[in-house]
Specification:
Length: 118
C-alpha cells in the first residue's frame, strides 16, 4: 500500500536546484570522480532529535550504491528533514560536477524532486 501523500513544507517547491555541502570531508571527494551527470541520488535525513542534540538535523546525499557525497545546505535541509522523517520522499539528480578549481560547496549541483520517484 503506498504511503499517503504528504504536503510539502511551507515555502519548499516540489523541484529545486541546490549545491551539496561537505563534499571534501571523510574522503567524499573521491566519490565525485565516479559520478555522472543525470545520476539519481538518495536523500536521507538525520534521525529525529539530531538538531536538538546539536548534531545538525541534515539531509544527506547518497549515491544509490550507498556512498555519502555530502549534505544539503541548511536552507534546503532544515525544512526538508522533518518532512522526510514523516514519510515524505525526495530524490536528487546530478546536474553538474565541478573539479577542484571550484569551492568545495559548489562542486556538486543537484536537482531535488520532492514527492516523486525517478
Amino acid at each position: 500500500m503506498p504511503l499517503p501523500r504528504r504536503p510539502l513544507p511551507h515555502g519548499l517547491p516540489q523541484r529545486f536546484t541546490v549545491t551539496v555541502h561537505g563534499t571534501v570531508f571523510e574522503g567524499r571527494h573521491a566519490h565525485l570522480a565516479n559520478l555522472e551527470e543525470g545520476e539519481t541520488l538518495l536523500l536521507r535525513p538525520d534521525p529525529a532529535g539530531a538538531e536538538v542534540r546539536g548534531e545538525g538535523g541534515k539531509v544527506w546525499v547518497h549515491r544509490l550504491t550507498g556512498e555519502v557525497l555530502g549534505y544539503l545546505p541548511p536552507e534546503a535541509g532544515i525544512p526538508l528533514a522533518p518532512w522526510l522523517r514523516e514519510g515524505g520522499r525526495a530524490w536528487g539528480k546530478v546536474l553538474k560536477i565541478r573539479g577542484e578549481e571550484a569551492p568545495s560547496f559548489r562542486r556538486l549541483v543537484v536537482e531535488v524532486s520532492c514527492g516523486t520517484c525517478p
